[in-house]
Every structure is written in C-alpha cells, then in structure tokens.
C-alpha cells in the first residue's frame, strides 16, 4: 500500500510539473506561432517621430506615441497595418503630446500616456466614441517622463515627473492616492518590480536610484548612487527578482543585486554613448537590449558576462532610437523599435549583425611598466599544432557548459592563450616619466625661464637630448630685446632687435690689428692674428647684472657672425684705458659707389692712436664691431644695420613640427605635449587639430594610469583643443540635500532656503564645518573629514542617529 501511495504521489508531482511546463510552452508558442508566420524584419513609415512604443498583451498590436503622433498598428504577417488614430479633434490638446506610453498587460483595452504638459492620461479602447480618453490627472507641475502599470493590479498606475515627485493613481478614483517625494531632482524612470508586489524602483537625474514600498510614501526603503550622471532608465529582471539594470549618461549599463543589505554591482557594460533605454531579453537570463539618447542610432543586445563587445546589433534606424520593446514577454526572437526618423521596425534576431564575427581575434596591450601582453587563439601559438582537443570541450569549463549549445544564442567558444613578455626593469623603468611630469613647468613664468627650467629637469634625469631640445627652443623663439635691458650708456633704438648670439669685448688689440691685420682679399691668403681674448661672465640672460661685462661702463658689445662659436665659447670685455676718445662714424653708405680699391688702406685714425683701446660708444649712437670668420678679422663699425638680423619665429616652425612628430613617433608623447603647451600659439597653428587631440589624449591616459591626477588636470586646463577642455566640464556638478529637512540645497550658500538652518554641521561634534566637509549621499548627514573617518572605523551607522548605514570610500 505504501509503495502504491508513494508511486501515485510521485506520478501526481510529475503530472503537475509537466502541466506547468506545457503552460509555459503554450505561452511561448502563442507568440512564436504568430511570429513564425510573419518571419521577417519589416518596418513602416510614421507620420511623425516617435517618443515611445508599447505592445499589448497578446503581441498582436503596438501603440506608437510622440509629440505629433498617437496611433495603434496591427502586427500582421508581412507588414504593419494602422488600426486606430487616437489623436482626434480639429485642434488636439497637449494631452495628446506624449513623452511615454504604456499598454496594460492584463487589461487589453487600457492605455496610459505621460503628457509633456504634466498630465497623466488613461485611454479606454473599448469606448464606442471616437475620443478614447478615459481619465485625466493634472497633479504634476512639470513634464511627466514615465508611466508604469502594476504588473498584477489592474487599477494601479505609477508616474514619475520632472518636478521630482512620483504619484500612484487608483483608476477608480479621480486623484492620486499616494505621492512620493524623491527629495531630489527630476524622476527619469519608474518601474514596478516583477516579483515584489509592493516594491518599485525610481531613477533620478542626480545619479541616484531609490527603492520604495507603495505602502510607505513618506520615505524610500533604500537609496544608492548608481551612476556619475543622470540615470535615464531602469528595468527589473523578469526571472531573477533581485536584479535591477540601470543605464545613464556615463555610457554605462549596470546590473545590481538588490537582495543584499547594500546594492551590489555585479555586472557593468561600457557602451559608446549615453543609455536611454534598457530592456531585459525574455528567456535569456544574461541578455539585455539598449539604445542611446544621442549620437548612436543602433540597438545593441549585450551578454552581460562579456561586456566589451555587443552580442548582436540592429543597424536599421537612421536617427536616434527612442523606444524599444520585446514583442512578447516569452519570445526572445522579435524586437520592436521606434525612432526619430519616423519609422517603426520589427527586428528578427536572426537578421542581427554579430560584431564578434568582425572583431580582431588577437589582443595586444602594454603594461604600465612596459610589459607586453599578447592573447590569441591557442591553435595559433601552441607548439603542438596537432594536439587533439578534449572531446567534451575545453578542460577549463565544466562538462555541462558544452551540453548541446545553441550556436545562434552564444558566443563562439574559442580557447585563447595569453603570453606576457616582461621587460628589464633596470633598463625600462618609467621613473623618469613620473618625475618629469611632476617637475616640468608648463605655465606661470616667461617663456625663456620655462625652457631653462625644463632643460635643467631633463639634464638632472640624464636625458641630454631632451635637455638640448629645450635649450634650442629657447634660442629659437626667445625675443632678444627682452633678454637683456640696455645699460644707461646703451642706445639700441637704431639697431632694432638684436639676434641671440654670443657677445664679446676686445681686451687687447695687438699690433697685428693695424694695417697688416686687415683682410687682403686680392691675395687670398689666410693669416692668423694674435687676438688675446679672456673668458668672462658675458652670458646673455634676464638678469640685469649680466647686461654689461665687469669693469665696463657703457662699452659696446661685439657680435660674431653666424655659426662662429658655440654656446660655451663666451667671453667678456675688459678695458685698460677708460679715456674719452673722439668718435669715428662711418658714412651712411657702408661702401661708396665706384671708389678706387686700395690694397692696404689705412686704419681709422683713432684706432692707430691706441691699438690697445676698445672703440667707444657714445650716448647717442650704438657702434657695433663685427668680427667675421673669413680668412682673418676685419673690424667694421656701423651705426645702423643694413638688414634685420633677427629671424622670425615662423622660420623655425617647420623644424619644430618635425621635432614634435619625431618625439611622438618615438613614444615620448610627454615631450610633444609639453612643448606644444609651452610654445602655445607659436607652433599650434602648424599642427592639425586631430594630431594635437591624439597627443593630448595619449598623454592624459598615461598620466591617469600613473595616478598623476593633478598633472592630468593641469594639462587639460592648458589645452586649447575643445575635445580636451570639455573633459573637465562633464559631471562636475554636485547636488546636495539639507541634512535637516532633506530638501535639495540651492547654489546660493550653505543656508537652507526652506528650514533656514546651516547644512554644514558636523554630525559628530555638532559644530559648523569651516574646512573640508564630507557627507553621505544616502542620508545627507556629514561633518569634518577626520571626525567622520574616525566614527566609521568603529561603527557603520550614521552618527546623526538616522539609522542609515554610511560607508566611507
């Protein structure tokens, strides 16, 4: 008897399980059967751009809503067929201008729309009249962004508005039954939980997500910061009751486990644009679909276990996709979408593009210290090319993972091998990069001082080529008129701008500088003159002490010709005789026309009187003696130059451009960006914007990898590329609440406009915080940084006694 009873009970359990499976399969085949008949991707043109779409319970009709469109289409085998236009009347009111639409999943004749004028409208398709409007709620003060029906309650409707409030409506009444204040900025999305009857989630523009119990409208159950910018959408997993997916402006989709005490991020998908909509894929636990709010027009289906490349892509739309919905809650093969390009699409999953098929199967990456990692198919780099694969699949995976996989619904299982090539730390250390970034000066001082400082830094780090480059840049682009201010007896007004060359004074002109020391051009002979020059302190700098040489009172400087001496061959001038001499001035023309050439012309009279004396510069004229390196020295005194001796900065730009490209190609993008910033407008126009942006982004990426945040911020601030400067202008706003009344604070100060209390009171010592203030984004309480750190070391609860579990990170 016992055995028979046990068998009958076991058979009954089997029968119940089989019946449940059959019910589930019948629900699936209901959708699959109708869709199998249509069997293709199709679309139709709309009268206006769509803002949102929704599907009825049996997946046979879809409603499209927008500012200028509100229609219902039937999903037939080969096409969309318009069934009903809900915009009736000669002059439709703003109630027909929809920001969102929702079709009830239990009552097939019930629709709800969120109007741009702040109204929440319900529509009864069973009405015999042309106007199907049923109820009108006008309690919101600003645009309503989202409406959502309860999944099991017919008459419960939830709305979220730009005014920061959420309202719950009972459709049997004419006003809301509950109002939920997020105590924050506008509400972007609200979603009832699929498994928890009383729970709904709300996302906000300040990056927070709140969980509410509809029985407690006074305070949320939980709040956490999900994204660094506005959270535009959220969606509960249809099967796993604890999973919540969120998408935001930070281009990320995050999956949160809400079953723990704290919201735990378990998956994160990085997209290429801000996420406007996210929808879990039916019957596929790890798949979800997303679309963007701007820039990107495609629809992506992601496998959250592989977040770096989309599982499938739909590329049919030509403008931003505004609404996506799976055709049936148990059918993973058909996706509907509406767009601003005024089209409505039905996408078949088998027609989707698979990005992984076009992806590069090899990976290459440099480590922070120069290590190289290379990943490729195991068959390409294994030494045993004839090795037979394990019959059950890769040994690293469990056997059940390879049990008859569906190739169309999974990524290809490719076994890869990773090779890491390490570098010699002594020869490839990156200490120089960090020290250079920290010690370089890019602004705040004159150009010459910046070059000298950076050259000194490079020299101390044993990088002579870089040091020499900085020195050459100073020589090329410095303005010599600003290098040395003329002394009281110098008058450079007639000379204009002097080139940056080596300056000299004659200490002794020997007897050879008389008639015999002059250049004999007719003979072509080269004779050495005994000119005794002693090194001194005549290096050109910005210091006033070096404007004149020691022992001189207003004596002239002598310039050698181009390429005569190096920077190291610097000499000073000394005088043995300070006696006032008679001036000798050349005529205005340096060489008289058609004069007779004399083999040995006599020297100027005052030079013959005292060969040891240097020529004198009066207070009215500046006389320059040029020593030319042609066979011998010839002393010429002129009052005005016949040409401009200073080369313009544009003369050196091609050379500097090639130099910057050389450093960038060699991998030293730090030098390229640093020179680009220091030179500024002198060189910026010579290099195209895309190249500059590439250099900046590469250098900033390196700085951030080495955690040099301050240097990275300085480079971004000093950049003139719009694409770089905007990096410091995104997600920089902090929205804070008053710790007393929990209302958002204004930007006017630290006194709350509502309760007129100081918001910056330390929760530990109860004094006003005048320095660094740290606060919890969950409960808005905070205080002195040191006090809060010490408190949270021993307790996880808020020191204000609100019961919130604060966390210091």
TrEMBL record:
Catalytic component of the GATOR2 complex, a multiprotein complex that acts as an activator of the amino acid-sensing branch of the mTORC1 signaling pathway. The GATOR2 complex indirectly activates mTORC1 through the inhibition of the GATOR1 subcomplex. GATOR2 probably acts as an E3 ubiquitin-protein ligase toward GATOR1. In the presence of abundant amino acids, the GATOR2 complex mediates ubiquitination of the NPRL2 core component of the GATOR1 complex, leading to GATOR1 inactivation. In the absence of amino acids, GATOR2 is inhibited, activating the GATOR1 complex. It is found in: Lysosome membrane. Its EC number is 2.3.2.27. Residues 511-562 are annotated as: Disordered. One of its GO terms (biological process) is autophagy. The gene is WDR24. Its main location: membrane. One of its GO terms (molecular function) is zinc ion binding. GO terms for cellular component: cytosol; GATOR2 complex; lysosomal membrane. WD repeats lie at residues 137-179, 224-266. Residues 517-532 have a biased composition (Basic and acidic residues). This is GATOR2 complex protein WDR24. InterPro entries: WD40/YVTN_repeat-like_dom_sf (IPR015943), WD40_repeat_CS (IPR019775), WD40_repeat_dom_sf (IPR036322), WD40_rpt (IPR001680), WDR24 (IPR037590).
């Amino acid at each position: 008897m016992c055995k028979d009873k046990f068998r009958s009970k076991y058979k009954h359990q089997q029968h119940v399980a089989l019946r449940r499976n059959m019910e589930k399969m019948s629900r699936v085949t209901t959708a699959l059967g109708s869709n199998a008949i249509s069997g293709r991707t199709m679309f139709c043109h709309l009268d206006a751009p769509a803002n949102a779409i929704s599907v009825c319970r049996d997946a046979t009709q879809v409603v499209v809503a927008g500012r200028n469109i509100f229609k219902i289409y039937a999903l037939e085998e080969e096409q969309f067929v318009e069934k009903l236009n809900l915009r009736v009347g000669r002059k439709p009111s703003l109630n027909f201008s929809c920001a969102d639409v929702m079709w009830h999943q239990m009552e097939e004749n019930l629709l709800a729309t969120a109007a741009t004028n702040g109204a929440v409208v319900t529509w009864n398709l069973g009405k015999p009249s042309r106007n199907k409007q049923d109820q009108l709620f006008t309690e919101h003060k600003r645009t309503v962004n989202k409406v959502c029906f309860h999944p099991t309650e017919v008459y419960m409707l939830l709305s979220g508005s730009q005014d920061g409030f959420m309202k719950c409506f009972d459709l049997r009444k004419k006003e809301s039954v509950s109002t939920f204040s997020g105590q924050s900025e506008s509400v972007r999305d609200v979603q009832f939980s699929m498994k928890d009857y009383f729970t709904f989630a709300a996302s906000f523009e300040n990056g927070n997500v709140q969980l509410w119990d509809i029985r407690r409208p006074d305070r949320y159950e939980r709040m956490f910061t999900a994204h660094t910018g506005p959270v535009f959408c959220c969606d509960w997993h249809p099967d796993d009751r604890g999973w919540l997916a969120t998408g935001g402006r930070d281009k990320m989709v995050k999956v949160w486990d809400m079953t723990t005490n704290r919201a735990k991020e378990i998956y994160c998908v990085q997209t290429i644009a801000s996420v406007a909509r996210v929808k879990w894929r039916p019957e596929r636990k790890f798949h979800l679909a997303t679309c963007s709010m701007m820039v990107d027009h495609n629809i992506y289906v992601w496998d959250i276990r592989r977040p770096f490349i989309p599982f499938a892509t739909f590329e049919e739309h030509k403008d931003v996709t505004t609404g996506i919905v799976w055709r049936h809650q148990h059918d993973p093969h058909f996706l509907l979408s509406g767009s601003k390009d005024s089209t409505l699409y039905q996408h078949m999953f088998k027609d989707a593009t698979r990005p992984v098929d076009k992806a590069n199967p090899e990976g290459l990456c440099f480590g922070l210290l120069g290590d190289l990692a290379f990943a490729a198919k195991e068959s390409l780099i294994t030494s045993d090319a004839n090795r037979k694969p394990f019959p059950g699949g890769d040994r690293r995976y469990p056997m059940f993972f390879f049990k008859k996989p569906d190739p169309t619904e999974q990524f290809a299982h490719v076994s890869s091998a990773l090779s890491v090539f390490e570098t010699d730390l002594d020869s490839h250390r990156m200490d120089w990069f960090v020290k250079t970034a920290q010690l370089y000066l890019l602004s705040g001082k004159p150009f010459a001082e910046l070059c000298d400082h950076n050259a000194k830094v490079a020299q101390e780090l044993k990088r002579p080529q870089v040091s020499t480059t900085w020195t050459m840049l100073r020589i090329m682009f410095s303005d010599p008129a600003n290098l040395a201010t003329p002394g009281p007896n110098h008058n450079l007004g007639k000379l204009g701008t002097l080139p940056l060359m080596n300056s000299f004074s004659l200490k002794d002109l020997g007897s050879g500088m008389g008639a015999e020391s002059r250049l004999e051009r007719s003979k072509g002979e080269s004779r050495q003159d005994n000119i005794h020059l002693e090194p001194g302190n005549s290096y050109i700098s910005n210091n006033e002490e070096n404007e004149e040489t020691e022992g001189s009172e207003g004596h002239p400087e002598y310039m050698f010709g181009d390429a005569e001496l190096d920077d190291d061959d610097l000499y000073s001038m000394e005088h043995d005789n300070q006696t006032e001499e008679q001036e000798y001035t050349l005529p205005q023309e340096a060489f008289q026309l058609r004069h007779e050439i004399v083999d040995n012309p006599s020297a100027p009279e005052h030079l013959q009187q005292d060969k040891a004396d240097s020529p004198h510069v009066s207070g009215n004229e500046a006389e320059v003696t040029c020593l030319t390196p042609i066979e011998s020295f010839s002393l010429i005194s002129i009052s005005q130059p016949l040409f401009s001796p200073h080369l313009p900065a544009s003369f050196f730009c091609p050379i500097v451009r090639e130099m910057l490209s050389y450093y960038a190609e060699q991998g030293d993008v730090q030098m390229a960006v640093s020179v680009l910033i220091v030179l500024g407008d002198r060189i910026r126009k010579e290099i195209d914007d895309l190249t500059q942006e590439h250099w900046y982004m590469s250098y900033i990426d390196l700085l951030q990898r080495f955690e040099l945040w301050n240097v990275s911020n300085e480079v971004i601030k000093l950049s003139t590329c719009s694409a770089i400067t905007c990096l410091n202008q995104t997600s920089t706003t902090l929205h804070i609440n008053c710790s007393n009344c929990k209302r958002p604070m204004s930007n006017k100060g630290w006194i709350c406009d509502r309760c007129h209390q100081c918001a910056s009171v330390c929760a530990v010592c109860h004094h006003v915080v005048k320095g660094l203030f740290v606060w919890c984004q969950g409960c808005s309480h905070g205080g002195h940084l040191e006090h809060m750190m010490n408190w949270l070391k021993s307790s996880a609860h808020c020191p204000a006694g609100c019961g919130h579990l604060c966390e210091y990170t």
